[in-house]
Task: structure prediction
Amino acid sequence: MIALHEEHGEVVASWLRLGYRAESVVCFDRHLDLKPLTRAAAARLTRLTGEHPIEAENRKLPIREVDGSYGLDDFYAAGATLGLVSSLTWVRATREADSPAARRRLLAALSVIAAEPDVLDTTRFDERGALHTRVCGLDLAIHTPDTFGATPQDPASRVDVDLDWFADVTTGQDHQPGELLHLLERHGLLGNVDSMTYSVRSGFLPEDRRDLAPLLAGELGRGTRQRERDALPLPQATFTALRGAADPVPPERYEAELGPLGAVGTALLGLLHLRTAGDTDRAGRCWHEAAQAGCRSSWLAYGIGLSHYGRQAFTEAGEWFRRATGERTDTIEVKSAFLAALCTLRTGAFEEAYRTLLDFARRYPLHADAARLAAGLGDRLGIERQPWLSRRIDAQERILANGAAA
Result:
């Protein structure tokens, strides 16, 4: 039976039921669900006992501020922490051809994931343009369907399918079921599909494409089993408005469905003020109210920061980006830390900006923009370039130019 899930984080419990031990997983998904866990979350998972089911650690809403150790965007890191998964091959939902620009975009997308200082030694683009690295305790390979099809795969790999790989609420259908089946057959993996996820509740797969699950299972000659889990009712009207899938109405109209969510609901109300009316003042009041109640929403603070940044109000933008930084585990937090440094630079505090950018470049070895900007700013200020920074820039350029680190 193929384990069928409503949201992708539920797959962790299926891995345990299936007896996973340091497995290699091939995942077909529109998104790379590989954000690092917070320190507290990792500690909670390592202390789990048989009396405390793993399902209880899955967030009850697809929002990172909700209590829980993992959810739909960081469950692969949970799998690594629990020793269930050792390597991940991500097959992207794209037909993008290999090019220098494509490689830079892919490395930039990966650069906001915290990594070990020596990650550049294990990062390379192969001859077909697939990216190989190690982050979040996993050996990671990132493929397009074409490069995956052309690259030998471990025949013992387990296969995980997020159905939004086929269709997206914005772009429509990108890939056909026959394409997936052909790729799996090519590598002898048709019998290795363990799990599928709808991703409808979280807003990625159109509701009318739930038929993809029985269709694929039928083609594979398999049945499916979906397990219910303890989840909170999703504030559907709010999420629909935030995705821009409906004409906006006054934010107060959403308070009835947001009220039961407490501080998280207050943060979502702030996002509605921001997205539907561009009201940074009311959004900011919502952020402070939610923060006082224990929810320091990086999502909301980041959005407010972007709004100020777009108006070139760099002092205000920097303040909000710093509020969004948090532990720097969520990629939004990391993006906020970088943008806060840019705001410092824009306000003319060059030496402070240099120190901040240098610290950021040290923390995020894959972030080529931060390293180059810190080096250039230091040169302008007459500060001798630190040897580690020069080595890092050289390694980043070798990866992008030659496909491999020296």
